[in-house]
Prior knowledge:
By secondary structure, this protein is of the alpha+beta class. It is built from 19 helices and 19 strands. Keywords: Cell membrane, Kinase, Membrane, Phosphoprotein, Transferase, Transmembrane, Transmembrane helix.
Amino acid sequence: MQVLRWFQDLTIRKKLQFINVLIILPSIVLLTFTLYQMTLKQAEERALRSSEQKIELIANTIGNLFSDIENFSKLSMINKTFQSVLMNTSPENSELQRLEDVQTVYESLNTLAAANPYIDSVILQSAEGDRIYHSDNMSNVTLSSISVYPVQQLIDAKGTAVWIDTFESPFLVNDQRKSLISIGRRVININNGLLAGFFYINVDELKLSGLYGSGGTQGRVMIVNGLGQIVSSNDRDIVNRSLQSLYGSNVAQMRSSAIVHSGRQNVLVSSRDLGKEGWRAIYAVPTKELLTDQWNITLFILGFGGAGLLLALILSMIFSNWITTPITQLTRAMTAVGDGLLDTRTPVRTNDEVGRLTRKFNEMVGRIQDLMAAVNAEEKQKRVLELRLSYSQIKPHFLYNTLEMVRSMALMVQQRDIAKVVKSLADFYRSSLNGGQEVISVAQERKHLESYLYIQKMRYHHIDYRIDFDSRLEDSRVPNMLLQPLVENAIYHGLRNKRDGALCEIFGALEDDGGLPVICFTVCDNGEGMSEEQLERIWHRDQTDHGLSSFGIRNVHDRIMLRYGPGYGLTIRSRPGEGVEVQLRIPIISDKGIP
């Protein structure tokens, strides 16, 4: 009664407004609910068709890639060099032929690893496991590290390809551990049918997920093996997990497309068979991610039924233009930067998400400009050093022939000391020029130093020298003429004027730097030493000096910094009258891996 009394006391204008609300509001609610259900059903049907097309495309792409890799693996079955190396079929007296076969195997493995961008590395293993060959981008490949491959499963497969689930590589590929999916085959001797070895092709799971997980894909795309284990996904956190543990048994058993209830949400799932030992490609996305626009449609319908529809449309246009104008400006700026205009900047007018994104974009472009300037400066400095090196080189053949002629003339007159000095000089220049190669072995660098120090010993009889390198470093690779400038500096500035007990010592050792092996070379002399002022002049010499007579300590340091980065280089310790000790540290690089 009180409500009725209150209604009766209202003015007619307010009553009409109240009645219009009571009439229009239920109609709008019913219309909105009906349209929402209709659009929801249509959106789900479109999402199902879209997901089916998406998973079909993904399955075809992955299937083609897997087929290509399987075809590559078939090469191991018919490759004669693989057969010869695995079975030791070369004659016992044909050592050269065996070496050539091994070289051919490595070349074939490297070619295969480069044949497809998704092939990460390749391994060939003998049946006994005593011989392992792999592509050059791998290291730490031992019989223990490749025990992750199921050898017995390959034997039971009788020559067919076996796909191996994702595993963390115990060996290194490009100096890092990776998550790999592998395909393996057994290799049979084509002459007698006996087991000869095993062949593995590794696929980087991160690259594989990038094949189907790029382009802003919503939801999760997964490759699942026959046991329901996830072997690859664009979501890194679910790799190697069970599909059933994520979505339940209904999703784990699906072979088509449907919307299923999983946990507290509905999930749209599409599945396609890859034809590889029960492997499937699965696309799963919560329906709420696909139907986020439904509420926008509902709000639009409510606004359309309201008296302020026209005003809403006008305000929508104004506000949308206000919001999208900064985004449009940012898009134009990104396009300009992509075209190479790194001076482009976008004004920041707000502190919302778009404003913060614009500010970070401007900072990023500024950092890119700074990095490009630094790279250009380093490249210019590198070109100067290379130019100096080219100016210092001479015609090698003319020099070698002339020195050989002088040596022969000395031998003819029984001047063996002169002949030995000339030979050392020829060996010195032959090692210095080294056919234009920038990198040599530590053994070659030692021979180069011995030739140089022998000549200096014959010139300055009072100077003695000692070279002591760790034998494990002989195969390590170092830049050409790395130590000779340091030894030359020690002789000419420290020992030449010391008449008694002059000694130059060169040491090479393998050290540990934070878990990483490095080479440490030390050049010591017991000469005059240097003061703090002299050391400062070495590190702060005039960079405009274009003298080409020698490279010196600073140039050796610059070469190391350009090649290996700021973590390596030279350190000098000295006091007047106590000699000089120069330490040179570089990373260990060897054709045979880290010793």
